[in-house]
Amino acid sequence: MRSSPPANPSTMSSLSSSSSKKQALFITSLIVLWYSSNIGVLLLNKFLLSNYGFRFPIFLTMCHMSACAILSYLSIVFFKMVPLQPVKSRHQFFKIATLSVVFCGSVVGGNISLRYLPVSFNQAVGATTPFFTAVFAYLMTFKREAWVTYAALVPVVAGVVIASGGEPGFHLYGFIMCISATAARAFKSVLQGILLSSEGEKLNSMNLLLYMSPIAVLVLLPAALIMEPNVLEVTLSLGRQHKYMWVLLVLNSTMAYSANLSNFLVTKHTSALTLQVLGNAKGAVAVVISIFIFRNPVTFVGIAGYTMTVAGVVAYGEAKRRFR
């Protein structure tokens, strides 16, 4: 019986190199999708809410959640992108519903703030999420970090204070809504860790979105009809005036789902540290692009404040990594 010839080392090396290149290309494509989806939905939100005359942030959020509900169902049930994780009890369903309501509040608040604030300042305030996360984690779980970690949060807050003073388009109500949305986003992440921490109740982000989205739609629909009573009339009127109105709404809603999907995939195929670094850079990219598109005035003080905030976020992430 003839033995098979030994594998050629150069051939194996070539196959390994080819596989590595494909993996790197795949991850790069995911990051590009994540950036374009996140920045795209942010800029389209701003365009629709401030420049287009579509002044209905609650209804817009409901459109996003409707797209997330439909596309999550298709992705998980039909395309099997991730295994379906069933809800196992009423208690677990109540926890998911609670998270959904908090999530609604954060998204609606963020969309309302975009009516009044430039995207650049909105992103500066949004960068303070780690500060609120640390505060809620301490208040709700009594989890303490090293003093160096808390010290890194000082420039995060100080930067926003400085940026606020140097922001030509500062609007108090918009600022309050933006801070509230940022705090709600941090509260949701801490609450999620508490409510769905047991092994039997853990859901990956795609399954969680599948169950949260329909609940969010049920919450937002009556809210939109009560607080934005002329939404259907104005939307139909805008649709008749601007032939691309419906295209923009559908594209915006699809991007909202794409941002969630790509965030999940980037998290799955890279490390938490990589995601954090990419997230910080994403905010800066969004600021630069928004300034070019919307031509909102910026000052040296505002740029300095935002830079300080981002530097503080980077320092906070590094401190958490070293002292955990």
From TrEMBL:
Sugar phosphate transporter domain mapped to chain residues: 27-316
A Pfam family of this chain: TPT
Annotated compartments: Membrane
Membrane topology of this protein: Multi-pass membrane protein
Cited InterPro entries: EmrE-like (IPR037185), Sugar_P_trans_dom (IPR004853), TPT_transporter (IPR050186)
Ranges annotated as spanning the membrane: 24-44, 56-81, 93-114, 120-140, 147-164, 208-226, 246-266, 273-294, 300-319
Alphabetic keyword roster: Membrane, Transmembrane, Transmembrane helix
PANTHER family with a match to the protein in the record: SOLUTE CARRIER FAMILY 35 (PTHR11132)
Protein name (database record): Sugar phosphate transporter domain-containing protein
